[in-house]
Amino acid sequence: MLTAIVLIDTAPDVIPEVAETVAGLAGVSEVYSVTGRADLVAIVRVRDHDKLADVIADGISKVPGVVRTETLLAFRAYSQVDLEQAFEIGLED
Questions:
Q1: 51 domain-assigned
Q2: Domain, as residue range, for 82
Q3: Mean pLDDT calculated for residue range 70-77
């Protein structure tokens, strides 16, 4: 399984629409609205490099409102912590 982190710059007035469209693409597991140099971060998980091209170059990059992308390929995962558990830290029922 290959994991890519895709930093996405969008036109400022369409961030939510772009996020929803990208989140619906096959191979995209998560999309986050973030602060910093990118508007959105997408996590892409696919079986091979050809699928990366399908999802990123032929998918995310062609979504209306996407201005630029930068792709970071993950080499190794150091933590298998469940994200839901991480976000629940400190929250009371």
A1: yes
A2: 2-88
A3: 92
Tell me which amino acid residue 66 is.
Answer: V
Strand partners, 66: 10
* Residue 82 confidence class, pLDDT cut points 50, 70, 90: low
Provide the whole-model pTM. 0.83
Q: Are 61 and 47 in contact (CB under 8 A)?
A: no
Has residue 93 been placed in a domain? no
What pLDDT digit, counting tens, does each position of 37-69 carry? 999 999 999 999 999 999 999 999 999 999 999
60 Cβ partners below 8 Å, 6+ apart? 6, 8, 22, 25, 28, 42, 44, 66, 69
Q: 84: domain CATH number?
A: 3.30.70.920
Amino acid letter for position 54: D
How many domains, the chain?
1
Q: Which residues of 32-45 are buried (b: 16+ CB within 10 A; e: fewer)?
A: eeeeeebbbbbebb
